[in-house]
Design a protein that fits this description.
The protein is mainly alpha-helical. It is built from 19 helices and no strands. It has helices spanning 4-8, 13-42, 45-53, 59-65, 69-72, 75-93, 100-113, 115-128, 134-162, 165-186, 200-212, 214-234, 237-240, 245-266, 276-284, 296-307, 312-322, 329-357, 360-386.
Length: 406
């Protein structure tokens, strides 16, 4: 499948995208509103950053205890329930006089229940699309995320000029409800992909199998760590340029859109695996220049160029699917989503701490330097792995493939 026309003719793909778009719009508008609300109330870059991205740390718990549900529960019901849970939590965040500790309690609970979302969506997309359409379909999914972020942060920035942060949070809650309705009405009630009931033991057992392959471990680390460190830099936009944070997030989303479109539609499949390291380096290098404290215009250019590098995730997800049995696709992608969210949360905490001790610009530069170091280290380990012979998996009948060339 190499054309957008054939992709959008695939049954259920369009409502799947619309449901995700409404959910993503709610996240961007609500996240910016919450970060602004906390920053106005406390004046602390650390708390503002953590309110926007810190809840992703809670997904570590979900990844440890809940992920088996990604393949063992009906996807439509789970996605509808998640959207309604986020709607209720966001409405609570809009309550006047809510203390800061209660704000963090709510968003951490949201992060916990969100741990299922990435795996369920990823596994469902794997079912909706044929094998040859996955990369193109995933690229459109990522492009939509970039577009919605761009529009959502830009719209959120305007709304925060015209309305209060609490009103913006209520608008976000309404978008979550819309996502639940589109999911319920537009998608088929599919059975679970795997038999058995979700349980902590099943989650641990499958996670252990997924982590047992060295090729998969390197792929997961490549998906999580460089990305998480740069998202830590992104979390400081509000404190770095309070009046232009929405614009910086919007330009970052534009860069993501361009990168995913180029990799998903224009780059030949044989070339894609060789771009993983280059794209991860591109993701970090422009942030090194923030040590010079560039103005808003140059910052927007740097953010846009850097965000093209987020397309590395598309390349690495394709590699992950080639290394994973089909019946574990949901949990494999769920482990990716929760691990990435957790590392983004850790990156946010680290960036916020560095900003408190130094400055937002210095913290963004240090996070970028760390991302470059990790990427180069993983690339060297990946080259070493390629030279090794194929190693049998611990799961009977499954052989782990060597990592693709960086």
């Amino acid at each position: 499948m190499r054309s957008y026309r054939s992709l959008f003719r695939t049954p259920e793909y369009t409502p799947f995208l619309f449901s995700f778009a409404a959910f993503a719009a709610a996240q961007t508008i609500g996240g910016l509103a919450l970060g602004t609300l906390v920053f106005r109330a406390t004046g602390a870059p650390f708390l503002s950053a953590v309110s926007m991205f810190g809840p992703q740390l809670a997904q570590l718990l979900g990844g440890a205890f809940l992920l088996s549900g990604a393949d063992r529960l009906p996807p439509r019901a789970i996605l509808s329930g998640l959207a309604l849970a986020f709607a209720a939590g966001t409405a609570v965040l809009a309550l006047p006089g809510l203390p800061v500790w209660a704000v963090f309690a709510v968003v951490l609970l949201q992060g916990l229940v969100a741990s299922l979302g990435g795996g369920v969506r990823g596994g469902l997309l794997n079912e909706i699309l044929s094998k040859d359409g996955y990369v193109l379909g995933r690229s459109v999914y990522n492009m939509l995320w970039g577009l919605v972020q761009m529009a959502g942060f830009a719209t959120g920035g305007v709304l925060l000029v015209l309305l209060s942060p609490r009103t913006c949070l209520l608008l976000a809650a309404a978008l979550y409800v819309m996502s639940a309705l589109v999911t319920r009405l537009g998608l088929t009630a599919r059975p679970p992909r795997s038999s058995g009931h979700p349980s902590v033991s099943a989650t641990w057992r499958t996670n252990a199998f997924l982590w047992s392959s060295r090729s998969r471990r390197l792929t997961y680390l490549g998906l999580w760590v460089p990305n998480g460190l740069i998202v830590g830099s992104d979390s400081l936009y509000v404190s770095y340029a309070p009046e232009a944070a929405g614009m910086l997030y919007a330009f970052g989303a534009l860069g993501m859109f361009v990168g995913d479109m180029a990799v998903g539609r224009l780059v030949p499949p044989a070339v894609r695996p060789r771009l993983a390291t280059s794209l991860r380096l591109l993701l970090a290098f422009p942030y090194l220049f923030f040590v010079l404290r560039p103005g808003v215009t140059l910052s927007a250019v740097a953010v846009t160029v850097a965000s093209v590098g987020f397309a590395a995730s598309l390349v690495l997800q394709e590699r992950l699917m080639s290394l994973t049995p089909d019946d574990l696709a949901g949990q494999a992608l769920g482990l990716h989503a929760t691990g990435m969210a957790a590392l983004q949360g850790i990156g946010t905490l680290l960036a916020g701490t560095l900003a408190q001790l130094t400055s937002s610009a210095a913290a963004m530069t240090l996070m970028a330097a760390g991302s470059v170091t990790v990427t180069l280290t993983l690339a060297a380990l990946g080259r070493h792995e390629e030279r090794r012979s194929t190693v049998p998996s611990t799961r009977p009948g499954v052989v782990s493939k060597p990592a693709a060339t960086d």
